[in-house]
Amino acid sequence: MKRRDIIQKIGFSALFACMAANIFFLGGIIFFIAARGLSSINWAFLTQAPRDSMTAGGVAPAIVGTFYLTMGAIIFALPLGVACAIYLTEYSPKGWIVNLLRISINNLAGVPSVVFGLFGLTVFVKYFGFGVSILSGSLTLGILALPLIISASQEAMTAVPQSIREASLALGATQWETIRRVVLPAALPGILTGVILSVGRVAGETAPILFTAAAFYVKGYPHSPFSEVMALPYHIYALMTEGTHPVEQTRIAYASSLLLLGLVLSVSMLAIYIRARQRKTYNA
Amino acid sequence: MHNVDYEKQPGMENFHPSLVKGPVGINMNYMGEADVFGPEAKISARKVNFYYGAKRALNNINISFSPRRVTAIIGPSGCGKSTFIRLINRMHELVPGTRFEGEILIDGLDILSPACDAAELRKRVGMVFQKPNPFPKTVFENVAYGLEVNGVTDKHLIEEKVVDSLKKAALWGEIKDRLKDSALGLSGGQQQRLCIARCLAVSPEVILFDEPCASLDPISTAKIEELILTLKKEYTIVIVTHNMQQAARVSDNTAFFLMGDLIETGRTDRIFKAPRDKRTEDYITGRFG
Amino acid sequence: MNKRKERLIKYLFTALAFSSLVFLIGIVLVLFKEALPIFGKVSLKAFLLGESWYPTSEPPEFGILPLILASLWVTLGALVICVPIGVGSALYLHELAGPRQRAILKPVIEILASVPSIVYGFFGMVILSPFLQDTFELPIGLCALTTSIILGVMATPTVASIAEDALSYVPRSFREASFAVGADRWQTLTKVIIPAAGSGISTAIILGMSRAIGETMTVLMVAGGAAVIPHSVFDPVRPMTAAIAAEMGEAPVGSDHYNALFAIALILFLITFVFNIAAEFISRRFRLKLGLSR
Question: Could you tell me which residues are beta bridge partners of residue B16?
């Protein structure tokens, strides 16, 4: 073998090792958490409230709380995000406006999650007086999800061929009718993918709800948007840092982590699947 | 030709009478061929210039189109023929940074004037594009779309119109059992006839064809051409094509564009047999373009 | 009538489109407003360069140098992992993987990116830190090293997917030209493709850093929490995000401590803002260089 062939071989093996490391990371995390968490997951764990100062029972209130927070965030961020994407793709604003908005969207996406938490604490919890509540937490998480939904919607709408916009306009439809009846329906699967990915992201976030929504223990289920809630990710954190019975709590934390991991990963896989199917129909 | 009642023309409510230029149906044939465009013109363009940014794409175009006739616009790529017909239903507005001068009258009304509503205009002036562009919806929804955006809500009326338009577009027989299928599953030729049906459903007066067969096979092309010949009984048709045989087969009149100039217009048989301009002759005999 | 409605709708969308800008400005205003009072008590210099962070002792000391250094320390450590592995996997995906491998490997990276940070933190706490503690016979497993490893793993998919994007912008013709003069695939990769995608790859690295430095839950759980200037990778540390998250719950609203935590958040925000703007700027130049508009 020539020298340069050997170098190529070594180089390619190194790249392969890098790729393999990703699989190793993902496999390792899933394996270790599943190995110790799976045995604790059963029907009672999913449907009961915690008992005996967090050493027994289930995590049902935390599941419900995470569901409310996530839905609230999406209800807030989806219309706003789609509207923003509509403006950017359909109303072709002037260059500097596009640049300004793109920079602010990218920067919003890069803001550390704990900073969102402080913003939510100052504005929603205190200034608007919503208190530590589902509402405050949802709004905070919604701002975090906004850039994700904007970019997914923008991508989906850009992929709609210009020719069918022309077809609609040529039939006498106004621009808004064209957007509402042609562009949005055609972009819907792409927007949906973005929404599902944001659900996964929002459901797993902890730092933004630390000071805006989450509580270690709440008796019963939340009954209004102004209630404090338990949330799955915060529950894991609290079990590991605030408890008095480390052994039992770690066992429950394993199960909760596995549950959260399972939820978030299946949501992402669903989104990836929908997107792959969608790409096929576009190319056909 | 039917009489035009300005008060009742959709989209013309905003017209001040002073905006109505000239007597209705004036013959604007500048080439001095009285017989060519018939006694009345449906569409007349006067002194039209068009610019993409600083680049001039059309130079002082003066042309008229007769009602219920097919006029073909021929010329090499980039001669401005597509640019010109996209002005007739104001599709040029979708491209930012463009500018025009002059006027285009339909039934005597300047459709380029800001007082004329583009959406209303486009209901009267339909367009069929180079590439079939059905919506990613069912066959039925595609044809019904134009009616729905025009505020038709009566389900029976919509259904009647859809069937009628599909029949007119010579598509009904092939497709009557597939109305609920996605339009994207049709063949290219069927898609293009669907686009024609979609256009007919809105009951336009003028139909613009922008190289409608550019992406079709010869059999589909023949069907579209046959269809155009049937449609001219009811509609004023303008067709842009780079295929001279097609122009010869379907059109009554022909206009030849070259580098943004209108070189020659006349009856199709005359243009092809006895072109008056040297450049027209060079083009139709295949010496360039 | 129609026209007026269309115009109203357009104005409505224009207004809504500015929401992200409004939120971004809102965040800056909130951070400034809540942070500024602390600088009436402590000078900016003393705040940034002070070596002791004892916000609750009497008298309190607000020097955040240990926190800043801790953040930088664990982020640098994370780069050691995420840069080679992230860029390496991007190169593998782009150069070596066939379509069928890509169809599996790209989702793997995406799924790795979607693992919640709390799960990483938990994993670091219960699996990695005991393991490292035993292996290196450390007094405590929750330290800078553990944090860096976890942050590195977390930032890897960010780096990989952005770098892969950048590689895909490199025109095919570059590669063909290189093959045509007799270069093999490795030479083409290292001498042509990596330099051509270089600024795109640096964007990926900057955004990976930004992700790591802003990460909160993981560092809160595994960094160990000691607010002292780190001297070795085995020291427990308290990065900025951890300090904010851990102490905000205990700081009375409007107290000096509370304002100081907002000031930390402000500095953190400014750091990530600079990273993001730099990434934006570099990737813009990158696209211009390759003749891509957008």
Answer: none
In chain C, whose CA is at the least distance from the CA of A204? C116
Residues β-bridged to residue B254: B72, B266
Identify whether residues A11 and A57 lie together within a single domain. no
Domain map of chain B by residue range? 6-284
The CATH architecture of the domain made up of C36-289 is: Orthogonal Bundle (1.10)
Of A119, A122, A146, the CB nearest to C20: A146
* 3 state SS of B263: strand
DSSP code per residue over C90-110: HHIIIII--HHHHHHHHHHHH
Question: Structure pTM?
Answer: 0.86
Element (H, E) at A239: helix A232-241
Alpha-carbon gap, residue A187 to B136, rounded angstroms: 10
The secondary element (H helix, E strand) that includes residue B208 is: strand B206-210
DSSP letters along B231-262, please? HTTTSEEEEE-S-HHHHHHH-SEEEEEETTEE
In which residue are the tokens 């939510």 written?
Answer: A120
Could you tell me the residue ranges of all domains in chain C? 36-289
Instruction: Supply the CATH number for residue A52's domain.
Output: 1.10.3720.10
**Partners of residue B96 in chain A, C-beta under 8 Å:** 92
Complex ipTM: 0.91
Same domain, A158 and A268: yes
Asked if C3 has any chain B CB less than 8 Å from its own CB, the reply is: yes
Same domain, A20 and A140: no
Nearest to C258 by CA among C68, C60, C50, C65: C60
**Alpha carbon C201 to its chain's center:** 15
Question: Which of A38, A29, A232, A16 lies closest to C112, judged by CA?
Answer: A29
Range of the domain at A16: 3-40
| A171/B contact by beta carbon, under 8 A | yes
Element (H, E) at C62: strand C61-62
Question: Contact at 8 Å (CB) between C110 and C157?
Answer: yes
Alpha-carbon gap, residue A177 to A158, rounded angstroms: 17
**Fold that domain B6-284 belongs to in CATH:** Rossmann fold (3.40.50)
Residue C31: predicted pLDDT: 96
The chain C residue lying nearest A115, using CA atoms, is C265
Residue B90 sits at the vertex; the CA angle it makes with A153 and B106, to the nearest 5 degrees, is 150
Cα–Cα distance, C182 to C162 (Å, whole number):
30
Residues A22 and A105 in one domain: no
Are A151 and A255 members of one domain? yes
Asked if the peptide bond before residue C236 counts as cis, ω within 30 degrees of 0, the response is no
User: Residues 172..231 of C with a Cβ closer than 8 Å to A: which?
Assistant: 184-187, 189-190, 207, 210-211, 213-217, 220-221
Residue A66: both structure tokens together: 């995470």
pLDDT digits (tens, 9 = 90+) for C112-140: 999 999 999 999 999 999 999 999 888 88
Q: Are strands B70-74 and B55-65 parallel, antiparallel or unpaired?
A: unpaired
Q: Which residues pair with B182 in a beta bridge?
A: B138
Query: Which of residues 142 through 181 in chain C touch A, CB cutoff 8 A?
Result: 153, 156-157, 160
Q: Is A70 found in the same domain as A200?
A: yes
Q: pLDDT by residue for chain A (284 residues), tens digit each?
A: 688 889 999 999 999 999 999 999 999 999 999 999 998 888 888 888 887 777 778 889 999 999 999 999 999 999 999 999 999 999 877 788 888 999 999 999 999 999 999 999 999 999 999 999 999 999 999 999 999 999 999 999 999 999 999 999 999 999 999 999 999 999 998 999 999 999 999 999 999 999 999 888 887 788 888 888 899 999 999 988 887 777 888 889 999 999 999 999 999 999 998 888 876 655 43
Q: What angle do CA C110, C166, C160 make, to 5 degrees?
A: 30
